[in-house]
Specification:
Layout (H helix, E strand, L loop, with lengths): L1 H24 L11 H6 L3 H23 L2 H4 L6 H12 L6 H21 L13 H20 L3 H40 L2 H23 L2 H24 L9 H19 L17
Length: 291
């Protein structure tokens, strides 16, 4: 229950951060895309800094969640970050939420519940044994290089979607490294074992890389293109890491049918929610009155 609670808190923080970062990233000219100058310009925007603050809060909550629960349980919960954020935005801005937005919230929530009940992730170790990280890091690097290379040759929403998936892979890798690093802290070595583990510093490097890719994704494409790739990519790749690196187990066989249905529900819900004006940080226009 502790891992689920902190995973939900992470989702709330990450979702709000994504909306704030997109508002800031859309004000940066295209000439700054895929350059470090993009971060320099964003640092001068208070909205972006507020989003980074929420990212830090999310990182702390995520570390607690991963230290107390399987990665295949914690990471998929993050799909609720977008609906949670939109509900919070509607409450704060005192905007009446549309029926389509509620349908999106219901689709994501039902999809997550169905997916978790069908997959029933369990077992696994808290650390990665042997040299299993070597092939995982090589394959991840190749996958990221292919996505970034394809994104550089694209524009608009296509680039945003590809970079969104690349960012999702980076965040999933960050979670896996973070879980392995936190296990050192609990393994009896204490803070010294954590501070001397390469996983801790690899976590920071992967997290910064994922953050950079996400800023470029949000700058290049709409939230409709970026968010589904980010949300689903993070969940699916995290599950893959959980199964291959930590030995976590999922149901297969005929259970794959409801699991695929759950993915479809989540994807449809994310697309619908991303189209909401609240996702861009603005309130929808007031309804017209008949005279």
């Amino acid at each position: 229950m502790i891992s689920v609670l902190f995973a939900v808190l992470t989702a709330f923080s990450n979702g709000a951060a994504s909306v704030l970062q997109r508002r800031a990233a859309r004000t940066v000219p295209d000439s700054a895309a895929m350059h470090l100058s993009l971060i320099g310009q964003l640092l001068r925007r208070p909205v972006w800094l507020a989003g980074i603050g929420l990212v830090i809060v999310a990182a702390v909550c995520q570390a607690v969640a991963l230290a107390t629960g399987p990665i295949a349980v914690v990471q998929p919960i993050f799909v609720i970050e977008l609906p949670a954020t939109l509900l919070m935005a509607g409450f704060v801005m005192r905007v009446r939420l549309s029926r389509s937005l509620w349908y999106g919230v219901a689709a994501v929530t039902c999809g997550l519940a169905l997916g978790m009940a069908s997959a029933a992730p369990e077992g696994g170790s808290s650390t990665v044994h042997g040299a299993a990280w070597v092939p995982a890091l090589i394959l991840t690097g190749v996958f990221e290089a292919v996505l970034i290379g394809a994104a550089l040759g694209a524009r608009g929403n296509t680039r945003g979607a590809l970079l969104g998936l690349a960012a999702a892979c980076g965040y999933a890798l960050t979670a896996a490294l973070m879980k392995d690093a936190m296990a050192r802290l609990e393994g009896g070595g204490g803070a010294a074992a954590l501070l001397t583990s390469w996983q801790l510093y690899a976590t920071a490097l992967a997290g910064l890389g994922a953050l950079f890719l996400l800023q470029n994704a949000l700058q290049a494409g709409t939230l409709v293109a970026v968010q589904p790739m980010l949300t689903l990519g993070d969940a699916l790749i995290s599950i893959l890491y959980g199964v291959t690196l930590f030995g976590e187990e999922l149901r297969t066989g005929w259970w794959l049918l409801p699991e695929l249905l759950a993915l479809a529900l989540i994807a449809a819900g994310c697309v619908g929610l991303s189209r909401s004006p609240l996702a861009s940080g603005s309130a929808p226009p007031p309804p017209r009155r008949l005279r």
